Amino acid sequence: MRPLIAGNWKMYKSASEVRFFCEEIQKKIGQLSVDLAIFPQAVHLPLFSTIFTATKQNHFFWGPQNIHYKEMGAFTGELSPLAAKEFGSEMVIIGHSERRQFFGETNTSAAERALGAITFGLQPIFCVGETLEEREANRTMEVIDQQLAPLFSLVKEPSSSFSIAYEPVWAIGTGKTATALQAQEVQQQIRKRIESSWGKENAAKCRILYGGSVKPENAKEILSQPDVDGALVGGASLEVGSFLSIAAAANQ
Ligand code: PEP
């Protein structure tokens, strides 16, 4: 399966910094052997579509960090999947732990947004993961099962490029990375859950990404695990050089 290296830019970068990154990456992506995706602030999506109009590569994607599940309506402050698509978005992050922690995203609302994404033709990266307290209480898979349950019940058939990102909350932006073995252990279980709900074929097709302080120095070991099909990268995706080093590690 072709790995996916996705950059979550959160609420960082000005328009001129976005432009600089895009122009730099445009010079370097050439023949990609992995899929790359960037998730900027929604207001910057038009910059991506303008800059990449003539040079869009098959394996370079962008999209928002969240979307509403309806195409339009009285939902102040939300983003329509169709509006995101107008600016070339092909993917979307759903249920990131920061959405859950700060903005009241629940397992059910995340599942609804994933269904909305699929309905309107965006490929979701659906985030799950446990807190440190939950890991220490040996509740990691119990928590992940709760996060996945509404998804499996609402989405009967995933889109061809559905991804699940395992992002232990204790490893996001903390500099603490799960060991390659810890990531593999959980991601193998996630693949089994996909298989029981969506079948063997979908389990083999769904990409399971790891996220949590991935950097050029630790990427190779994590990405070499059999059930790690890519990475969702926060801090280290903000700089073209480190983002591309992670992509190169996925390629080895
Ligand atoms: C993230 O925000 O999804 C993330 C994994 O961040 P970081 O790489 O900075 O830990």
Describe the protein in words.
This protein is an alpha/beta fold and 252 residues long. The chain has a single domain, classed as Aldolase class I (TIM Barrel, Alpha-Beta Barrel). It is 44% helix and 14% strand. The protein contains eleven helices and eight strands. It has helices spanning 15-28, 45-51, 81-86, 97-103, 107-119, 132-136, 140-154, 180-198, 200-205, 216-223, 240-250, and strands at residues 4-8, 35-39, 60-62, 91-94, 123-128, 163-166, 207-211, 230-233. β7, α10 and β8 (230-233) form a beta-alpha-beta unit. α5 packs across α7 and α7 (140-154) runs parallel beside α8. The mean pLDDT is 95. Bound molecules: phosphoenolpyruvate. Phosphoenolpyruvate binds at residues 8, 167, 172-173, 211-214, 232-236.
- Overall 3D geometry? globular
**Biggest β-sheet: count, sense, barrel?**
8 strands, parallel
Biggest sheet strand line-up: 3-2-1-8-7-6-5-4
Number of domains: 1
Low-confidence runs (pLDDT<50, min 5 residues)? none
Overall mean pLDDT: 95
Strand runs, count: 8
Q: What hetero molecules are bound to the protein chains?
A: phosphoenolpyruvate
- For the terminal residues, how far apart are their CA atoms? 13 Å
The string of secondary-structure elements, in order, is: EHEHEHEHHEHHEHHEHEH
> How large a portion of the residues is in β-strands, by DSSP E?
5-15%
Secondary structure: helix percent: 40-55%
Counted by DSSP, the helix tally is 11
> Given this structure, which CATH class is correct?
Alpha Beta
Instruction: Examine the secondary-structure arrangement and name the CATH architecture.
Output: Alpha-Beta Barrel
Radius of gyration (CA) equals: 17 Å
